[in-house]
Fold this protein.
Amino acid sequence: MILLQTSPTKRVEISPTRSPGPRRQRTIAESAEVRGVGMVTGTPIRLRFRPAPADTGVAFIRTDIPNAEPILARVESVTGTARRTTLGSGKNQVTLVEHVLAALAGMRVDNCIVELDGPEPPGLDGSSEGYVDTLLSAGTTLQNSRKARLSVSEPVTVSQGNSTLSIFPREGDDLLISYLLDYGPFSPIAPQSLTITINPDRFQQDLARSRTYVLEQEAIELQRQGVGRHLNPSEILVFGPKGLIDNRLRFSDEPARHKILDLVGDLALCGYDLVGHVVAYRSGHPLNVELARALTRVAQRKA
């Protein structure tokens, strides 16, 4: 069960504001491609970013499915959060979308059509770096519409078991994220914490290169289920009982950084520039999406 909590004595006020100072929306200046192998299926995938009109948002289109409807990157489209975020239903699904969404949100590309000829984006190296580099090469174009902001005047918290995820009020007009990672005293991954302001420069420098990771027993079970059978520890961060297997960290706290990267991608599903301080303790995709969903519901009530 996921619990939503707000202040018991004060009402929450969340309002999508268009003044003062909301930024202009952006799309890419030209189309750009990324090719690679899907991390889940191991099949070759071609992904193409295309410019989109103002107020379109991000939409995925499966070009391998005739007349497939666009899948909007919004919380209403989420159909799975088990170890990754999945959008769409039936055959018209796209899974493991968070790394693409993080790159778009982190670099502030608001409107984009994402075409792909398979059920998932290319996995690349498990990070968002390849997508960020592609978006930078495509360039961006300012659009006339403004990007709505979403700010909180009281905390909003979602929780499940020992995991919690909250957004707190914050002065200014940006988003700060703190992640506290703790797998317990006997885990090969040491407890880590990181706080970072989310903007294009910081995302590119401090988050985009961070890769996804698994524990060795998790990797064995996933491959038994047919997920990522083509991968080996040199291609993904796998932590065994004695630490990282056949690989080297890019940052000493790379797992915590990747958790924030995933948060950026999942929270983009609410469709707003968030203003506040997000504090995460052991959260993953289910709580990330639930907070995006909670913020969307409250914003709709206040509209």
Remarks:
- The radius of gyration is 19 Å.
